[in-house]
Design goal:
10 helices, 32% strand, 28% helix, alpha+beta, 13-stranded mixed beta sheet
Length: 446
């Protein structure tokens, strides 16, 4: 933290904790249509390849800010779960009461990090589907499948988009214009000439404004259809489809997908099938950037795990808009002094920010970014996902997305890893490539 960094006092955690009752029922829908049907303007969403969670309504929520934002959120959810009556015969990750979460990238951000416990959750994992009803007014003995389905229909109706019809999209400069971004990259390259920082991830923003309204249900469905291999997310207006899993925790096992190194598919020579391998896998700059991201994650994971598995070589992840160098890392977590494994939210805090979205080393890079970017990232590149009452959960990095600022305005973000040898114009072009999923989902054209 630099001497002139702003100090933001934490937002107090709500004092009157709710007493919740939560019951989970099997749900006889094994295709993904229930997820698509449940997507509405105000839904909470985490889904990939037809599996995931969709939440409706809210029975409890907390907002936090500052350096202790993760700790306050963890303590709050732990207290909520301890007071709750939970009946969960499904007993698998994502069943029972779940909190969806979105956290600011920086502790200096004005964005309020949050956890939200939905009233209704539709869940699907393989051939198993379920619906969870959580109430702050009724005891568990009075919660039934019929009540859950009736309440789900009510919430779906309430959450439907009520704005004007989708109109044309205008793209406007954000806090960091294209020209200012080029200058920031050049300044970052000067910083990298020193010995303290070896990588900086510079982000920029663009405002998408609709002449009608922005229907998040439509945006989410476009992302799911076009980027099914990514994790599509929605939490309180934060929406996107991230290719990067920050951490998945299941029964004491932690898994992560690390991405660093990007190639725009739109500029690929036609018919050159070796192009991504040559330009990514064999490119020293891309490999260095990727290795820095791997080292950042393994450094954070090593003290709290054993049996860590990290591949010697990355693989090339093919997405509709770009290719990435990717590595999947896993490890068995060590139980703490209380005998419990670290939760998904514990690990998300330990990993954040990774070198893939901040730089190397992360502390020094974070200080430099505040000077170079000159923007508040809000929840962009922060952890987004969910945690259940067992501590299992999934948190991705909030990439390839945007934040709905009002009914007709969304702020889009993208960032690029800057290392020695980076070219400012190429990095600007890469940032547009990374915004392409949201531009497509918004039916916007540059």
């Amino acid at each position: 933290m630099s001497a002139d960094s702003p100090v933001i006092s934490p937002v107090p955690v709500q004092e009157d904790l709710p007493t919740l009752a939560s019951v989970t029922f099997s749900f006889d829908r094994t295709d993904q249509s229930f997820i698509l049907d449940a997507l509405r303007h105000q839904a909470l969403v985490w889904t990939r390849q037809g599996n995931g969670l969709v939440g409706l309504g809210s029975v409890a929520r907390v907002k936090t800010r500052g350096e202790d934002r993760f700790l306050q959120a963890r303590n709050w959810f732990s207290d909520v779960v301890e007071r709750a009556t939970v009946i969960d015969p499904i007993n698998r990750p994502g069943s029972g009461p779940v909190a969806f979460g979105a956290f600011s990238f920086s502790y200096t951000s004005c964005y309020e990090s949050r956890l939200v416990v939905p009233e209704i959750i539709f869940g699907k994992d393989g051939d198993k589907s379920w619906i969870t009803l959580t109430s702050s007014t009724l005891p568990a003995t009075e919660l039934s499948y019929e009540i859950a389905m009736h309440r789900a229909q009510q919430l779906l109706a309430e959450a439907s988009f009520a704005g004007a019809a989708h109109g044309s999209i205008s793209l406007l400069p954000g806090q960091l214009t294209a020209g200012a971004y080029l200058e920031a990259v050049s300044e970052a390259l000067e910083v990298l000439e020193g010995e303290q920082i070896s990588k900086l991830v510079l982000s920029r923003d663009v405002i998408a404004r609709s002449s009608g309204g922005i229907d998040l249900a439509d945006v989410l469905q476009e992302l799911i259809k076009g980027y099914d291999n990514c994790w599509t997310y929605a939490v309180d207006g934060l929406v996107g489809a991230t290719p990067e899993m920050l951490v998945r925790v299941t029964n004491g096992k932690a898994e992560a997908r690390v991405l660093a190194g990007t190639l725009d598919r739109a500029t690929a020579p036609v018919g050159d099938t070796n192009y991504p391998h040559r330009e990514l896998f064999e490119d020293p700059k891309q490999r260095v950037e990727h290795q820095l991201a791997i080292d950042s994650l393994t450094l954070a994971l090593d003290p709290i795990s054993h049996g860590m598995s990290a591949p010697e070589q990355p693989f090339i992840l093919e997405l509709p808009n770009v290719w990435h160098l990717a590595s999947d890392v896993s490890a068995q977590l060590r139980p703490g002094s209380n005998g419990r494994f670290p939760s998904a939210l514990d690990i998300a805090e330990a990993f954040h920010p990774t070198a893939a979205v901040c730089g190397t080393p992360t502390k020094e890079a974070g200080v430099a970014l505040r000077e170079l970017e000159g923007l508040d990232r809000g929840p962009y590149a922060g952890p987004v996902g969910w945690i259940d009452s067992r501590g299992d959960g999934e948190f991705g990095i909030a990439l390839r997305g945007g934040v709905l600022e009002d009914e007709s305005t969304m702020r889009l973000y993208a960032g690029c890893g800057i290392v020695t040898g980076s070219d400012p114009e190429s990095e600007l072009a890469e940032s547009w490539a990374k915004m392409r999923p949201m531009l497509q989902a918004l039916h916007a054209e540059r």
